[in-house]
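During the practical work, I selected for study one protein's amino acid sequence and its backbone structure tokens, as given directly below:
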Amino acid sequence: MDVLVTGGTGRLGQRLAGPLQQAGHAVRLMSRRGTGPGGVRGDLATGQDLDLALAGAEVVVHAASDPQGDPWQVDVAGTRRLVQAVDRDLLRHLVYVSIVGVDRIPYGYYRAKFAAEQVLLASGLPVTLLRVTQFHDFVDFLLDTARRGPVLPVPMGWRVQPVDVGEVAQHIADVVGRPPSGGVVEYGGPEDLSAADLARAWAAARAPGAHVVATPVPGKLGAAFRDGAAVPSGGERGTRTYGQHLHG
């Protein structure tokens, strides 16, 4: 099938071409600049070139996002633009990459992702909303950013289940070939871990001598993470552990 990937230059998007091509699909990677092999130009924030990018697409893997910018413009309004631009007579499956916990964690970016899910559910398109957990290398980034000299503060009691981005890409290639779910499915890593456990493993491998300090986080956000809102309640699991990532 002809597959268009939005967010084609992102952390996940750039890993999708290989598994999708191995499954026999023709793959185009959409980004604002349309650079690189298989790159096509399309801007969700403005709608520019979307019609051209989506022409001929039988499957759309919607992996574009803007967590550090304006997710309401890209993730929500951009998803509306995408819905309006697809060829409804040709489209067989739209897979939206979301995040486990967007419906339970009171965080602005997650609210935008959840709103984008609602846009797709109301669209009448053949959709699968695939919620995944945090990628291993994103956990690395968060811990490296949180470190203050020899001290590494982490939220006390927070539970997470990080996943390998390559395994997510392979799983998406599998999901593309399945019938649309019409709703939410989840995919996470193999281990339900505390933030402190992750931090100790990261410090041992990447920052020897760093001292992990578990710090209480009050309020609804902290309560949601402690209650396991970021941990999948069902769905398939990857196999590569965070420890294997650190030492691989």
Notes: The chain has a mean pLDDT of 97.
